[in-house]
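Thread: quick sanity check before group meeting

JM: Hey all, I'm pulling together slides for Thursday and realized we never actually wrote out the predicted structure for the chain we discussed last week. Dropping the sequence here so it's in one place. If anyone has concerns about the input, flag it before I start.
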Amino acid sequence: MDYPLPYCQSDIFKKLAYYQVFNYPLNFEELSKYCFSDNIIKEINELIKLGLVFKHGEFYSLSPDSKSIEERIEGNKRSELYFQKGVKKAKFIAKFPYVRAVLISGSLSKGYMPEDGDVDYFIITQKNRLWVARTSLILYKKIFLLNSRKYFCVNYFIDDENLEIPNQNLFTATEITTLLPIVNKDLYN
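JM (edit): ok, ran it. Output follows.
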């Protein structure tokens, strides 16, 4: 292609490219969140005509191969089972000292769970207590869960006085916008 894409088409393409890394095709509703056009269908169809986007049933992808559609559907179903367990663990995590809020992040926050996936948690702690809270959670995981990550992967910590995320990139932006607050939704807001 010798010319740049119009703004909305570029946004659609970038979002599909991002999710393509995870072999996760998007549906129309998901794509429409990232394009503020009066006629998003027209924008998507232009990308399809250019051969940049492929439609497989209700899903859109940058790949002509539709294999990832089945994987996505299975992963979406699997996420429903994991979500219930994730909520239980989030409420348990909230009982640890200095934990102020617990949010589900990672693939589960996007309604998807790969076969070998785990439940990721984003933890907000009390000011100046992040390392104490983190250490107690990690020790619990290592001692009582034998370091299993399946339903207990505490992967992101911030404290309630420093809510800005230092690494600002497409990955962290996507993670932040898809967080699911389970405990202390007010602090999340």
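AS: nice. The longest helix spans residues 67-93. The mean pLDDT is 89.
JM: adding both to the slides.
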